[in-house]
Amino acid sequence: MRRLRPLLLLPLLALMSGCEAVVLSPAGDIAAQQRDLLVWSVVLMLIIIIPVMALTVFFAWKYRESNKEARYEPDWDHSTHLELVIWAAPLLIIICLGAITWSGTHLLDPYRSLDRINKGQPVAAGVEPLQVNVVAMDWKWLFIYPEYGIATVNELAAPVDRPIRFHITSTGVMNSFYIPALAGQIYAMPGMETKMNAVINRPGKYVGFSANYSGDGFSDMRFAFHGLDQAGFDQWVAGVRADSKSLDRETYLELEKPSEKVPVLHYASVDEGLFDAVLNMCVEPGKMCMGEMMAIDRKGGLGLTAVHATWPLAYDKYARRGEAVLGSGESYVMAICTPLEAEKAAVDAGRRRQELAAQITRSAPTEQIMGRGLTRPGQASRTEVAAAGWPFAPRIPAPTVADAPSASQS
After folding, report:
1. Are 131 and 214 in contact (CB under 8 A)?
2. Listing from the earlier edge strand, what are the strands of the sheet with 222-228?
3. Which residues are CB-neighbours of 370 under 8 A, at least 6 positions away?
4. Is 374 helix (H, G, I), strand (E, B) or coil?
5. I need a surface site. Which of 8, 123, 273, 364 has the fewest CB within 10 A?
6. What's the predicted TM-score (pTM) here?
7. DSSP H/E element including 10
8. Helices (DSSP H) in 205-271: which residue ranges?
9. Going by DSSP bridges, is the β-strand pair 186-188/175-178 parallel, antiparallel, or unpaired?
């Protein structure tokens, strides 16, 4: 019966044969370097672990009770040579691990642009990385290709041996973007942008998923990653563009709603600036963007005006994104102006300031006149600058009769 016991392990071995050790056999250079870092760390630690385990068995056998020939030294308490081995070996291993970890932390920084495609193959001059904007949703992945003006859901593709630059964010719950064959995982957080640079070196179909639990549909939050040659990638892009769907803001707000087991979706066009709106949490029409709000807060805020500048939320997943300062209604801060209006206003204000400065310079007197209420020649007063439209400049009223100096003062 005992001879048959090893046969009981055969079903377990059969199950393990279906496992794919993709972490130890990656298809991307970054993942391969991370694999090497893992292997070297394990090898260095085994230098201590294996001798300790072997000596444990050796001492238990040598000093067993039945071995009457073993040396018996009850008063032994110190050995300089043994102390040197005990302390020097772990210290050297810790130094080596620290050096490998330090260099790996900097060389494999996900924010660091790639300087090589593969071992011994640097990035060719003039090669631009493929930019992919990643949005983690409940419970699906949205990929936007700004270079090609397309977007996909739960499907990602990239050409072989071309650097990829990911810009990653989330709509609500924090997730973790992870393609084991490509590179390590990096978190996706709402209102924040993380980045990752990677490259795929072998064609194939790989699996990506979220490595951070994010709710009911987390188990199905998986997507396919295709490593293609350039011709295959161009064909894939053409297939996406052949779809008739367009990803505008209204479509995005519907897509953002929680859903599980979402099939692959293709969008032939994407609204310009959609990813920036997702990142700044202002996809809804009329909602103030985080960047705009932070710029206003940096200038001192809007005061009590901000209390009333709110608008009700029509939808907010399972809970409100924010509550009004007064009342319990769902609300958010309204935008003061659109980004295009703000950009145009800044350009117009700069042009008016330049024209005003040039006009004052041309009409400036040759002699320097100093006195109360007068500015230096060639410089505009605060009142003139405010009238010209300096952003956030205080509106200084024109001087009145009461402000004028009296005869006794002059």
Report:
1. no
2. 155-159, 222-228, 204-210, 175-178, 186-188
3. none
4. coil
5. 8
6. 0.71
7. helix 10-16
8. 230-241, 249-255
9. antiparallel
Task: List beta partners, residue 190.
Answer: 170
CATH fold, domain 118-279, is: Immunoglobulin-like (2.60.40)
Task: State pLDDT tens for residues 53-75.
Answer: 999 999 899 888 888 888 888 88
Token pair for 170: 């989330």
For tokens 């996909």, the residue is 152
Residue 240 pLDDT grade (very low, low, confident, very high; cuts 50, 70, 90)? very high
Task: List pLDDT tens digits, range 304-341.
Answer: 666 556 655 444 444 444 443 344 445 666 666 665 66
Cα–Cα distance measured from residue 326 to residue 319, given in angstroms and rounded to the nearest whole number: 18
What's 333's DSSP letter? E
Confidence class of residue 400 from pLDDT cuts 50, 70 and 90? very low
Instruction: Report domain extents, the chain.
Output: 22-57+83-108, 118-279, 290-333, 347-398
Q: Which two tokens stand for residue 278?
A: 């997702």
Task: Report yes or no: 289 and 343 within 8 Å, Cβ to Cβ.
Answer: no
Residue whose C-alpha is closest to residue 294's, from 302, 305, 286: 302
Backbone dihedral region for residue 286 (phi beyond 0: left; psi -120 to 50: alpha; all else: beta)? left
Count CA within 13 A, CB hemisphere, residue 368. 3
Contact between 176 and 211 (Cβ < 8 Å): yes
Owner of token pair 């932070």: 294
What percent of the chain has a predicted confidence (pLDDT) above 70?
A: 72
Instruction: Work out whether the CA dihedral 222, 228, 230, 234 comes out positive or negative.
Output: negative
Helices (H), 133-271: 230-241, 249-255
CA atoms of 346 and 392, how far apart (whole Å): 11
